Backbone:
């Protein structure tokens, strides 16, 4: 088996998370009607915190210094918008992260990160959770149900690379494509 993805709960410190929480809840990010993807000062600050935390955990890769700013965004996915079907659904990337910054989530709202050919089918988008998806792992975003009270808000980045981390809250494994 190889590691398909790792999940780290309570990724950022409580004070940083409370800062994110208060800024997201007082913004219009929670109620956009269309999918939005952007980079602004808030995004840059959160991205720096993510970078600092990965360095603390000793999972940082030097080439990320250049690739993370180029291949990362903050985004807001409202209920009823299907981001995956237009792109063919399940897909693979070169390795990257999803950091959930919405203030709360009910698993009945959908929006899970879905995996194919892994020992875990889906991961709930819990606030202050980061998921690193390793290269060549089939994944997609589950449809956010129309009963969701607010948008699914994330910081995502695809800087490339494979991550192993023994302290992960959840480790998702696959035995498919072990030779990759």
Residues:
């Amino acid at each position: 088996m190889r590691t398909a993805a790792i999940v780290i709960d309570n990724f950022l410190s409580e004070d940083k998370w409370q800062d994110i929480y208060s800024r997201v809840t007082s913004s219009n990010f929670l109620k956009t009607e269309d999918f939005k993807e952007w980079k602004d000062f808030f995004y840059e600050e959160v991205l720096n915190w993510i970078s600092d935390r990965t360095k603390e955990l000793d999972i940082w890769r030097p080439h990320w210094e250049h690739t993370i700013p180029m291949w990362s965004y903050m985004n807001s996915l409202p209920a009823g918008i299907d981001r995956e079907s237009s792109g063919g659904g399940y897909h693979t990337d070169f390795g990257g992260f999803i950091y959930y910054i919405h203030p709360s989530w009910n698993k009945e709202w959908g929006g899970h990160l879905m995996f194919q050919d892994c020992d875990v089918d889906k991961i709930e988008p819990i606030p202050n959770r980061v998921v690193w998806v390793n290269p060549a792992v089939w994944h997609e975003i589950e449809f956010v149900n129309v009963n969701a009270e607010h948008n699914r808000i994330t910081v995502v980045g695809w800087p490339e690379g494979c991550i192993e981390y023994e302290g992960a809250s959840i480790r998702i494994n696959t035995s498919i494509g072990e030779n990759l």
